[in-house]
Design goal:
single chain; about 500 residues; Serine Threonine Protein Phosphatase 5, Tetratricopeptide repeat; 26 helices; about 75% helix; about 0% strand; globular
């Protein structure tokens, strides 16, 4: 059985290197190691063995004993954070270990040891604050939005940085299923930040963090001007408060939210730069989510193969039990991309996994979309009868719930199947059923223009498989890229 490499070694390498004022580039030059590899070690993307750590630290002019001292501090501090109900006993044990470490390190290392203790104590306190915030969030979530706000206004215990962070996270979680709830939670996070005790620069940092989440919730609600305003204000506060943040708030998540906003504004190159920066600062906490965002940016650039590669990596990393919504979204988009790239054969074996995740979540709309996906894969495999049955059922359900954009997409999938069998009369009838979508005003103008082109071609019975496929692919892209314009290519069938 292979020996497990503890991630603490990466933490220790980063701490010792930075403590000596040595950059990754300089250490790489001294040790003849790529700075990118050092970055991977420090952020736990690649395993770092103790022998390798000893080798790298030797170029910093630090004795081996310093590594043991740092490990002892780390273990003592983490022990103190594992059982909050017995914190006093654990902290006492931690203090005894720390004193032993100080003696081991010697007087010359006193400043180093104390700075390490401060760093690791902060880590432990952060864990405990987040545990308390989780308890408070469970109480808040039972109340109506206006009642939650009253609790925050009336009780100091609901005004912590960790609760602000937790409510902001809940806003992200709600965004896919309930944009209105996501917006209310982001606004609540902003209010908690405004009332949070502490130095003013720390409140700036926290409020900036919350307002950046507000930008995300406004984006998913369709309020792009409001999203840009919240992002601009949030970034100013976030940056102004940076000196007051010892590393508690996740910078990678902030960069990811901004990248998603840039993606929605069709600034794909800028979005890609930000997401690459997010990978560099990520502490191995949100890598699957970052890969998902990268994949969506690549979709905007019409790079389906690059998007599929990023989604494949994300699917291998995400924990489906801990983050079922993210796991489902990653896999759903991966299989759609494969089908759009005429690779339905690769998608088919993965359908069962997607359905199992959706069934565990228990959301009816998720199950409807899985049925849709099964129809798309069947169509890609030439199983037209199964594809038609699935897609027609999904179309009826989406029309019943008046979910316009998804209904338009499924209609185009169904049109491809029918046109492949020269059933133009049925396609004309199908197009006529889209009238309610034009009245619903739930789609952007570019998507509606493409859909009108299809309806007119179907009415004249001149619609082809080629045209239907072009519009289908365009609608998938335009869903998250409303500024994209449809350009009809040769529409042979």
């Amino acid at each position: 059985m292979p020996r497990t490499i503890p991630p603490e070694f990466g933490i220790i390498l980063q701490f010792l290197r930075e403590g000596q004022g040595v950059s990754q580039a300089k250490l790489g030059e001294l040790a003849h190691v790529s700075p990118n590899l050092l970055n991977d070690y420090e952020h736990h993307r690649k395993p770092l063995s103790r022998d390798r750590l000893d080798y790298l630290v030797s170029f910093l002019g630090i004795p081996r004993e310093r590594i043991d001292a740092t490990l002892a501090c780390l273990e003592a501090n983490r022990a103190s954070s594992r059982a909050p109900r017995e914190a006093t006993a654990y902290l006492s044990a931690a203090h005894r270990r720390i004193e032993a470490v100080v003696q081991q390190a010697g007087g010359a290392a006193m400043d180093f040891t104390r700075s390490l203790l401060l760093l690791l104590t902060l880590e432990g306190e952060g864990l405990q604050a987040r545990e308390r915030a989780e308890v408070l969030w469970r109480r808040l979530r039972k109340h109506l939005p206006e009642e939650r706000l009253l609790l925050v206004e009336d009780s100091r215990k609901f005004r912590s940085w960790a609760l602000c962070e937790r409510v902001a996270a809940a806003s992200i979680e709600a965004a896919g299923d309930d944009p209105k709830e996501a917006l209310q939670l982001a606004e609540l996070a902003v209010r908690i930040a405004e009332l949070c005790p502490g130095p003013e620069p720390w409140r700036w940092r926290l409020e900036g963090y919350a307002r950046i989440h507000l930008a995300n919730s406004r984006k998913v609600s369709g309020n792009m001007p409001g999203a840009r305003e919240a992002m601009t204000r949030g970034k100013k506060l976030w940056q102004a408060g940076a000196p007051a943040d010892p590393g508690l708030l996740n910078e990678a998540l902030v960069l990811q939210i901004e990248a998603n906003l840039l993606r929605a504004s069709r600034r794909f190159d800028d979005a890609m730069k930000l997401i690459e920066e997010a990978f560099r600062v990520d502490r191995s906490e949100i890598r699957p989510s970052l890969l998902y965002t990268k994949a969506r940016i690549l979709e905007g650039l019409d790079d389906l193969q690059g998007s599929a590669a990023a989604l494949n990596e994300a699917a291998s990393l995400v924990d489906a039990k801990r983050e079922p919504r993210l796991a489902l979204g990653i896999r759903f988009h991966l299989l759609v991309n494969l089908c759009l790239d005429d690779r339905a054969g690769e998608a088919q074996p993965r359908l069962r996994e997607v359905r199992l995740i959706a069934e565990r979540r228990g959301q009816q709309l998720d199950l409807t979309r899985v049925l849709w996906l099964e129809g798309v894969v069947a169509a890609g495999l030439g199983q037209n009868a199964e594809a038609e049955a699935n897609l027609e059922q999904v179309r009826r359900e989406l029309e019943t719930h008046r979910i316009a954009y998804d209904c338009a997409l499924v209609t185009m999938e169904l049109a491809v199947v029918l046109l492949a069998e020269n059933r133009t009369e049925e396609v004309r009838s199908l197009a006529a059923d889209l009238v309610w979508i034009f009245r619903a005003q739930q789609m952007n103008e570019n998507a509606l223009a493409a859909l009108r082109l299809f309806v007119e071609a179907a009415r004249r019975e001149t619609a082809t498989v080629g045209l239907a496929r072009q519009i289908r692919r365009f609608l998938y892209r335009a869903q998250d890229d409303p500024g994209l314009e449809f350009e009809e290519a040769g529409a042979g069938g």
